[in-house]
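Any chance you'd type out a single protein's sequence alongside its tokenized fold?
>
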Amino acid sequence: MFLVGLTGGIASGKSTVLTVLQDLGCAVIDADIIARQVVQPGLLAYQSIVHAFGPEILLENGEINREALGSLIFSQPEKRQLLNSITHPQIQKEMLKQILKHFVLGYRYVILDIPLLFESNKLTRFMKHTVLVYCDPQTQLTRLMRRNGLTQAEAEARIAAQLPLDQKVKLADHIIDNSGNKEATKRQVLKLHSSLEDSLDFLWVRFLAITAVAGISGLTYFLLRQLVS
């Protein structure tokens, strides 16, 4: 099994691509979903966030107000870094658990949906392939304004907070151009899925895993024999 990092930009249409991949039965780990799970009340990340940002970022039911917290960190990079330092270790731990589960189930590859894959630049070294969902700048701006009900200035500010898609293109191994209609996007996703399924990269990972397990088992057996004798 190997890892495929999927990323995009705000309103580039990554969710459309994910829907196609999930319909194909691909194993998908969504970093955003995990990010919401690890900050549920009572968990370690939740307690650390409330301690760092105060109870004013909580809803009446005790859950974290994601909009309030998002507004707080949007214009303050130091607070964004603080939040990331709290949540990222917990997110990565949960992602690792899910990766191991899919490995045991025999999947050839696992897709990690990571919105800020290239911005953080910490997980790219673990990816055998990286995939960028791209759309042209004007389409991105129009979609974001329509989807979120933003003014042009507000939408441009949100887009500017991320690494431009044109720069991400240079970093990605595969590009899904989502500037057109859904059928055109689907054809590109099907082609990508076919090439990943046909890849033999997963054999190397399984070989290394089996070799490691065999080595540990052999060492354990040797030590037990020494203790018994």
Notes: The beta strands are 2-7, 27-30, 109-113, 129-134, 174-177. The CA atoms of residues 208 and 214 lie 10 Å apart. The domain at 2-198 is CATH 3.40.50.300 (Rossmann fold). The chain has one domain: 2-198.
